[in-house]
Amino acid sequence: MQIVKVEGSLQCTARIEGLKHVALRVLQTESGSRLVATDPVGAEPGNWVFVTSGSAARYTAGDFEILTDLAVCGIIDHWPDKE
Amino acid sequence: MQIVKVEGSLQCTARIEGLKHVALRVLQTESGSRLVATDPVGAEPGNWVFVTSGSAARYTAGDFEILTDLAVCGIIDHWPDKE
Amino acid sequence: MQIVKVEGSLQCTARIEGLKHVALRVLQTESGSRLVATDPVGAEPGNWVFVTSGSAARYTAGDFEILTDLAVCGIIDHWPDKE
Amino acid sequence: MQIVKVEGSLQCTARIEGLKHVALRVLQTESGSRLVATDPVGAEPGNWVFVTSGSAARYTAGDFEILTDLAVCGIIDHWPDKE
Amino acid sequence: MQIVKVEGSLQCTARIEGLKHVALRVLQTESGSRLVATDPVGAEPGNWVFVTSGSAARYTAGDFEILTDLAVCGIIDHWPDKE
Question: Is this structure's pTM higher than 0.95?
Answer without folding.
Answer: no
